[in-house]
Amino acid sequence: MTLVGACGGPVASAPRLDAGPSPVPRKSAAVIDYPPFIGVLVDGDDHWCTASVVDSPRGNIVATAAHCVYEADSSEPRTISFAPGFAGQGVGKQPYGAWKVRSVQVDDRWQEQEDDPYDFAFLALEPDAQGRNVQDVVGAAGLDWESGPDRQVTVVGYPEPDHNPDNHPVTCTTDSRADKDLPGMVRMECAGFWNGTSGSPWLTDYRGPDRPGRLIGVLSGGDTDAESTAALFGSPARALYQRALKA
């Protein structure tokens, strides 16, 4: 595969949560301070796309969309880092620092055909200057490889600065369903998810920053800011995650 950045066995999924209220469903995104394990991809002063830390044995794996990190015609790899908890105007602030991406894992079917149901990627990160792995600093969400499409999801992402000059994450809790036009994809309707929210985690059983639940996919695209799609995690995503663990 082409690396766009110097950017095992599966980990057990987080348990289902029986305590704590569910978020109230919305039809449009709200600006909110959110769990620090969600952030953006950065290269120098540039930032783009949303990514999130997922639970792993080493604590160094991030999930995002494949189109955020893979460029088929790229001759020069970018030096990508992940900045969790990012916010602020302009170049923004990185309150927890940034972790350099060591490897990028993208499904072969995305590389060959940019097939929407495989628009996900797992990135392995280097430790920071203090030798810490990102999960030890900001936490992580669990993973669900067997979810059905009909779920209540909490989606968190960073719209581009034109629609979000303060670079704060937005969130929406709403219902997802199978996309009838795109097999293998799930859809939600919630306004405010502009460009930049690609890679946003779709979380089930979210109960707050300390109870983030589990990812069932990452935001891939949508025809408008109010209609978003995600590739539902299953065995292909699980195999790619296992590749990332070994990278």
UniProtKB/TrEMBL annotation:
<dbReference type="InterPro" id="IPR050966">
    <property type="entry name" value="Glutamyl_endopeptidase"/>
</dbReference>
<feature type="domain" description="Peptidase S1">
    <location>
        <begin position="36"/>
        <end position="228"/>
    </location>
</feature>
<keyword id="KW-0732">Signal</keyword>
<protein>
    <submittedName>
        <fullName>Trypsin-like serine peptidase</fullName>
        <ecNumber>3.4.21.-</ecNumber>
    </submittedName>
</protein>
<dbReference type="GO" id="GO:0016787">
    <property type="term" value="F:hydrolase activity"/>
</dbReference>
<dbReference type="InterPro" id="IPR001254">
    <property type="entry name" value="Trypsin_dom"/>
</dbReference>
<dbReference type="InterPro" id="IPR009003">
    <property type="entry name" value="Peptidase_S1_PA"/>
</dbReference>
<dbReference type="Pfam" id="PF00089">
    <property type="entry name" value="Trypsin"/>
</dbReference>
<feature type="region of interest" description="Disordered">
    <location>
        <begin position="158"/>
        <end position="178"/>
    </location>
</feature>
<dbReference type="InterPro" id="IPR043504">
    <property type="entry name" value="Peptidase_S1_PA_chymotrypsin"/>
</dbReference>
<keyword id="KW-0378">Hydrolase</keyword>
